[in-house]
Each structure stands twice: as C-alpha cells, then as structure tokens.
Amino acid sequence: MDRVKAIDRLIAPTLAGMGYALVRARLSGGDRRTLQVMAERNDGATMKVADCAEISRALSALLDVEDPITGTYDLEVSSPGIDRPLVRLEDFARFAGFDAKIETARPVDGRKRFLGRLDGVNAGRVRIDLGDGTVAALPYEDIREAKLVLTDELIAAHMNDTDGR
After folding, report:
1. Which residues lie below 8 Å from residue 54, measured CB to CB, with a gap of 6+?
2. Chain centroid to CA 56: how far?
C-alpha cells in the first residue's frame, strides 16, 4: 500500500472526529521530509490559524504513536486556500462552474493538460468545458493533479460563500 494512502487512512478518522475533512496529504523532500496535511472545516467555515494548530497537535500525537513515517520529518498543516487542489471526485462536482487546471497521467484525446470551466461529473468522468465548443470527459482515475484557477469569479464566490464551498 502506498505510504501516503496509509497516512490518509490513519489521519482521516481523527480529522473527521474533530469536525474537519482531509483534502490532501503529501509527503515530500529527501533528507528532511515534510508531511503536508491540507484540511477544511466540515461546517464550511473558513479555516483559522487556531484550526491548523488544533489539527497539528492532534495529528502530531497520533503520528508519534502510530509512527507511519520512518526518520524525521516536519508536519505542516494548512487550509486548501481559494485556488485549492481538487482531489476527491466530489470536489469536481462541488466546484462545477469554476475554472480549473487539470493534468492527466495518460493522454486523453491526445493531450494531458486541460484548462477550462468544470462541467460536473458523469459516470466517474470529470467534465471540463475547454471554451472552444469542446467538453472533455476525463477519467477520474487518470487525473494526476488538478486545482482551481484563481479568478475574480472564484474570489467573489469565496467572499459571498454561504453554501460551504
């Protein structure tokens, strides 16, 4: 099992019990590694520094006991931010109507990079309107990396947020 997936499975229940959802965990670095944990509040409220500190304390204790990472590492806890990564299938549906950048592991219709407006999810495929009359349907399992694009529309939606986006 992939180490990061094992860490996801380890920390997600603790976060859920605290009222947060895991957005992404990522382990990076060589000699001095960093475990980056991105989380968001389940109630849709904006993450505060105090939220990150609370999560950091709880995860530090859990990771010390379970010890899923050999050697030393730094734990970094953050919110996903406005131009957040899109990780779960439901993220692509939740943010339909906003611009996104998506990179796939394998070419889809001869390309790996897509920039356009998210058009929801259908049968496990992420739909993205490329703005030229084409809507690409990307297999979710082939998406390597995706994130929202910072636009005035996204900022306005974030500022007026009432539905937990």
Report:
1. 18
2. 18
